[in-house]
Design brief:
single chain; alpha+beta; Chorismate synthase, AroC fold; 5-stranded antiparallel sheet; 4-stranded antiparallel sheet; 10 helices
Length: 397
């Protein structure tokens, strides 16, 4: 059984980023245009810095694809850095004044150096381009069985939208999102978000916000309750928290569950025979506070993941810090950065969440080829829709 996984390599100002994805079924149509489109979305958004005008991220396939389809071998994707200057001391000088909120200080102490440069280059969110490429490839896998994702910006600073995302409106909302440079599918909220970013730029400050991803089309049973390491919600939280600057991850109602009694948290179950052939198998809910997961498994409702991104750690005006050599008080160093990267974070979170869903899906249904994967999925859905299977050995025969 294939196990979907990936690893990334490269640095912010190194020659290239590399991601190697293992476990991709053979025969998957490789849509470079879709992957490059996601990379372009990650680079976009109001409030981004100057580097986005330099880099034009595109994937180059180094292995695992032949004649436009995956072969079953690991898929190696490379993203070349146009801004590659790590070995030029004039362009990448030593950094002795760590930035509060960044990895600078902890990494320098960890590797017993007063130069923060090596730490900040690897800790840079530039690395997320490789993760987006892997996630976009995983989304091509999910589409084989009709699973789709939709990510967007819920708020920037205090400029928020309260719009409801549903299975019947998310595609229309995606079109509105794509017309917004804050990646918010609410034009009024988007304009308020732009204003918040403009104010921060004038103040030489930065702003964060809340991003949200919905995964549609998941049947019940993806993930597991038998081992904490196999729980889908735990794996989603791990993957999303691993995105730079994310400080909080919620599934469904999230922290709001603590302010309500159980009767107003748990989602009532209703069986609708007319929807027996849908991904929910007819087990519909009148709410989705659980965010599509119960007991570490999908329950047939849309999976909903939210993440809070803190403001970028690099402030143009600097913050109180110290010189690591002299220990004298100094303002923190400035590295070319963004005022706001929340729109980009929404793209990253959408893609890393998709990767975890795809990983759990393949663990559930298996399949070394797309044909086998689709057949296994259809078989699972067939028998799940026939419940109860009694006696199982007779029905399955």
């Amino acid at each position: 059984m294939p196990t979907l996984d990936y690893q990334t390599a490269g640095e912010s100002h190194g020659p290239a980023l590399l991601t190697i994805v293992t476990g991709v079924p053979a025969g998957l149509a490789f849509d470079a245009g879709f992957i490059n489109g996601e990379l372009a979305r990650r680079q976009g958004g109001y409030g981004r810095g100057g580097r986005q005008n330099i880099e034009k991220d595109r994937v180059t396939v180094l292995a695992g694809v032949r004649r436009g389809r995956t072969t079953g071998a690991p898929v190696a994707l490379q993203i070349v850095n146009r801004d590659s200057r790590l070995d030029d001391p004039g362009k990448t000088p030593a950094v002795y004044r760590p930035r509060p909120g960044h990895a600078d200080l902890a990494g320098s102490v960890k590797w017993l150096t007063t130069d923060c440069r090596d730490t900040l280059e690897r800790a840079s969110a530039r690395e997320t381009a490789a993760r987006v490429a892997a996630g976009a490839l995983a989304r091509l896998v999910l589409r084989v069985v009709g699973i789709e994702t939709f990510g967007f910006v819920r708020s920037i600073l205090d400029a928020a939208t309260d719009l409801e995302v549903r299975e019947d409106n998310w595609r229309a909302l995606a079109a509105v999102r794509d017309a917004s440079d804050t990646y918010c599918p609410d034009p009024d909220a988007s304009e308020r978000q732009r204003a918040a970013i403009r104010r921060a730029k004038v103040d030489q400050d930065t702003v964060g916000g809340l991003v949200e991803t919905h995964v549609f089309g998941c049947p019940p049973g993806i993930g597991s309750c038998v081992d904490w390491r196999l729980k889908l919600d735990a794996r989603l939280a791990y993957a999303v928290m691993g995105v730079q600057a994310i400080k909080c991850v919620e599934i469904g109602l999230g922290k709001g569950c603590g302010a309500r009694p159980g009767s107003n948290v748990h989602d009532p179950i209703v069986f609708d025979a007319a929807r027996r052939q849908s991904p929910s198998l007819g087990f519909v809910r009148t709410s989705n506070n659980a965010g599509g997961t119960e007991g570490g498994m999908t329950n047939g409702q849309p999976v909903v993941v939210r993440a809070t991104m803190k403001p970028i750690s690099t402030l143009l005006r600097g913050m109180p810090s110290v010189d690591l050599n002299t220990k004298a008080p100094e303002r923190s160093a400035y590295e070319r950065s963004d005022v706001c990267a929340v729109p980009a974070a929404s793209v990253v979170v959408e893609n890393v969440a998709a990767f975890e869903v795809a990983r759990c899906l393949l663990e559930k249904i298996g399949g070394d080829s797309v044909l086998e994967m689709r057949t296994n999925f259809e078989s699972y859905m067939k028998y799940a829709s026939m419940l109860p299977l009694d006696p199982p050995e007779t029905t399955l025969a």
